[in-house]
Amino acid sequence: MDNPDLKAERHRRPKEDFDFFHDQRVRWVLYQILTIGIVGWLAWYLIGNTAHNLAARGMNTGFGFLTVSAGFDTDFKLIDYTPGVGTYGRIFVIGILNTLLVSFLAIIFSTMLGFFVGVMRLSPNWLAAKVALAYVEIFRNVPLLIQVVFWYMGVFSVLPVVRNSIDLSLGSGLMELNNRGLYLATPVFGDNFWMTPAALAVAVVGVVLFRRHARKVQERSGRQIHTLLPSIGAVVLMPLVVFIATGMPLGWDKPVLEGFNFVGGTSVPPAFLALLISLSIYHAAHVAEAVRAGILSVNPGQREAAFSIGLSQARVMSMVVIPQAMRAIVPPLISNWMNVVKNSSLAIAIGYSDIVSLFMQTALNQAGYAVEMVGMTMGFYMVVSLTISFFLNIYNKRVQLVER
Question: Are residue 244 and residue 277 in the same domain, yes or no?
């Protein structure tokens, strides 16, 4: 039963009068509706005004141009394309693939190099620390555009001519470098070659399960199981044995000098190499500073405790310091990776066929659909940036401290 005193107290409380214009919840909803309305009206006005101006000038609008054949070629493409047959839509795809390729490789190389330089910054070795410091200060403070032009004009354009190519494969003819780019031998797979990557996949799964088992044993009993050498042995030996047992079904289509150029293999233009090296070196300097700051954010007591139980310097860094430092490293790493993709648009300065140079410049000059092409290019960069942010934020939440 209800307490009579509590019931009387509820009756004595004054009722709150509802005021439509002064209620906070009403204002909150009203402000949002008003904001959406203003943004929608501005968008409608801009789109309508743009369409009217384009029509007044006799300029076509819409996305029908994507199915129109393009009459120009590109020096670097990852998919088949024939001038006069391929469409502007295919040109758009080629630009996307070229941009994603150089950005993906630059992200990998800059991250690996940045972690290495960042750890060197904190090395007790005076020379190593100063070399890392000089690297960061030089490449971080020189504009990226200047670095791109330097590698393209000052390095790759002055390489030897085709007949005096530099063999980077120690005489095997698999890699030839000259002022026209890098020529690589293309692998030719036999019928049973699929068994080798299948064996590699099985070995990787086995290594993952083995390392999980070793971690559980250590958590239960404290006994450490060495996993590095068995893991390397499994990943290397199992595919190698399968590759040999299947008769080594792998050949190479080597680039061969015929006349004034190489025939066969795969060629990589100097613009791609210059852009890749510039992006990797420049952004590695920024990653190095993020890594250094992340390591310094870890309490020194964590390292001392790890040394006290007999862990080596390498194991302390890989098992104790770096996992905790990732909480501070990942947020700036997100911005750095997104900047790699966006800064790849500087390829327009040296003629690499990225999406800006190929689609928003060459294709736009021929087709003329400026609003649509610029909008599609902007949408591509936005989608890539949001995708990188989405996945790295998921990882960031996993490495953050959880309140108990």
Answer: no
